[in-house]
Write a structure and sequence with these properties.
The protein is an alpha+beta fold and 428 residues long. It has 11 helices and 16 strands. It is globular and about 70 Å long. This is non-specific serine/threonine protein kinase.
C-alpha cells in the first residue's frame, strides 16, 4: 500500500484506491469512516514550476469554487460533500458514482445515436441551468466530466478546473482546461460566462455524435488556431439535433443559442418531425374567411365589399389593451371558455387548448424551485397558489392562462409569453 493510500483526511476520509488521474490531480475511491459510506476524493495538484504566489491563488480559488457547487441540489450534478486542506493542498470529497464517462463510452462504442445524445444534452442543460442560476460557471464541460449512470446523466468537476479566462493563461503560462471544448471567446482571453458553457455543451454533444470534437487537432496550438480561424464543420450524424448543435457552436456568443432556446430545440427534436407547413396567423385566417364570404355573397348579387366592411365594424374583436375579465366558473361550458376549478383563487392557472401547450413554472428565490416543466394533454389544467410564480408558455395559442383569476388574452401561434406573478398586485 502506498503512502497516499494510508492517508486519512480530516480524521475521517480514508483513501482506498486510485480511480484515475487528470491534468490537475488524482481521483481516489475513499471511505467516510464517520458516516460509513463510500466517497470519491479528488486530490488537486499543480505543476511544480508554479510560483508560490500562483499556488496560493490556486488553492484559495479552488476552495472558494469547490464550496459553491456544494450548495446545488440537482439530479444531474455530482454532489460535493466536503473540502479539506491536507498536506498543504485541497482535497474535494464528493459523491462516488461508479459509472463510465461519456468520453469512455465514445472511445469504447464510437459515436452515439442522436436519440441518446438528445437525452444527454437535455439533462446537461438541466445541470447548467441550476448552476448558472446560482452564479456558477462550469468552465470545463467536456465528455470526461460527464458520467452516465444508466439513465442518469451527471456533470462533475464544477468550478474545479480554475480556467477562468486570461488570468490562467497570462499568469501561470499554462492553458487550464480542454482546448477542444473551450469557447472561442474564452480561448481569446475573455471571461468565461454561461454562454461559454453552452459552447462547451455543443462541442461535447458534437463529439458524442461524430466521435471527436469539431476543432480537435494534433496539438494545443493547432486546435486553438482552428478554433479561431476555421468555420465550424457541420455535424454529419446529428439528424434532428443538427439545429441544436450548430446553434450552440455559434462563435459569436451574442448569437449563440440561449439556454431556453436550446431546451426548446432539443425538445422539438425529441418530439419527432413536424409538418413543414406553418399554421396560418390570425390575420391570414381572417383574410381567408373574408375572401370566402365575399365570394359567396358576390355569387348572390349582393354588394360584397359593403357587407364585409359592415361585419368588420360590427365585430371589431377584443382590444389588445382592454383589461382581462374574470373567468366564468366551470359550468359545462366549452373548454376554451370556462375556467378550471380553483382558478379564481390561484396565483396562476393554465389549461391546454391543444396538445402543443408546453409550460415551465417555477418559484423564484435564493434557490429556484421548478413546479412544472411539461407539455400538457389537451384539456389538462394546472393551478398554482404560491405567492410568487414565474411562468413561461411556449405557444400562447395552445394554452388558456389565468392570472389571479383573470383570463389573459390569447396569443399568436408559436408566440412565447413570460409571466411574473405575485399573489397580490404591487401596491394592492
Amino acid at each position: 500500500m502506498s503512502q497516499s493510500e494510508r492517508l486519512v483526511l480530516a480524521t475521517r476520509y480514508r483513501l482506498v484506491s486510485e480511480i484515475g488521474q487528470g491534468a490537475n490531480g488524482t481521483v481516489w475511491r475513499g471511505h467516510d469512516d464517520l458516516l460509513d459510506r463510500a466517497v470519491a476524493i479528488k486530490e488537486l495538484r499543480l505543476p511544480d514550476d508554479l510560483s508560490e504566489d500562483d499556488r496560493v491563488v490556486f488553492y484559495r480559488r479552488t476552495l472558494r469554487e469547490a464550496r459553491a457547487p456544494a450548495q446545488l441540489r440537482a439530479h444531474s450534478i455530482v454532489e460535493v460533500y466536503d473540502v479539506v486542506i491536507e498536506q498543504g493542498r485541497p482535497w474535494i470529497v464528493m459523491e462516488l458514482i461508479e459509472a463510465p464517462s461519456l468520453e469512455q463510452l465514445i472511445e469504447r462504442d464510437g459515436p452515439l445515436p442522436p436519440e441518446r445524445v438528445g437525452h444527454i444534452g437535455r439533462r446537461l442543460l438541466d445541470a447548467l441551468g441550476a448552476a448558472h442560476q446560482a452564479g456558477i460557471v462550469h468552465r470545463d464541460l467536456k465528455p470526461s466530466n460527464v458520467l452516465l449512470d444508466g439513465d442518469r446523466v451527471v456533470l462533475t468537476d464544477f468550478g474545479l478546473a480554475f480556467s477562468s479566462g486570461s488570468a490562467s493563461l497570462t499568469k501561470t503560462g499554462h492553458f487550464m482546461g480542454s482546448p477542444a471544448y473551450v469557447a472561442p471567446e474564452v480561448a481569446a482571453g475573455e471571461k468565461a460566462t454561461p454562454r461559454s458553457d453552452l459552447w462547451s455543451l455543443g462541442a461535447t454533444l458534437y463529439a458524442a455524435l461524430e466521435g471527436r470534437p469539431p476543432f480537435e487537432r494534433d496539438n494545443v496550438m493547432a486546435t486553438l488556431s482552428a478554433l479561431a480561424n476555421e468555420s465550424t464543420p457541420p455535424p454529419q450524424h446529428a439528424g434532428a439535433l443538427a439545429p441544436v448543435i450548430t446553434g450552440l457552436l455559434e462563435k459569436n456568443p451574442t448569437r449563440r443559442l440561449s439556454h431556453a432556446r436550446a431546451v426548446d430545440r432539443l425538445e422539438r427534436a425529441a418530439s419527432g418531425p413536424r409538418s413543414g407547413r406553418r399554421p396560418p396567423t390570425p390575420r391570414l385566417r381572417l383574410m381567408a374567411v373574408l375572401a370566402l364570404i365575399g365570394a359567396t355573397v358576390a355569387s348572390c348579387g349582393i354588394g360584397a365589399t359593403a357587407l364585409i366592411v359592415g361585419m368588420m365594424r360590427e365585430s371589431p374583436g377584443p382590444s389588445p389593451t382592454a383589461p382581462s375579465t374574470p373567468p366564468a366558473k366551470r359550468d359545462g361550458g366549452a373548454a376554451g371558455d370556462a375556467a378550471p376549478a380553483g382558478a379564481e383563487t390561484s396565483t396562476f392557472a393554465v389549461r391546454a387548448r391543444t396538445g402543443a401547450c408546453r409550460i415551465f413554472v417555477s418559484v423564484p428565490g435564493a434557490t429556484t424551485t421548478v413546479l412544472s416543466d411539461e407539455t400538457l394533454v389537451k384539456g389538462d389544467a394546472r393551478r398554482y397558489a404560491q405567492p410568487r410564480i414565474n411562468a413561461v408558455v411556449y405557444d400562447a395559442s395552445a394554452c388558456d392562462v389565468w392570472v389571479r383569476g383573470h383570463r389573459q388574452a390569447a396569443g399568436a401561434p408559436g408566440e412565447r409569453k413570460n409571466y411574473t406573478v405575485s399573489a397580490k398586485p404591487s401596491g394592492g
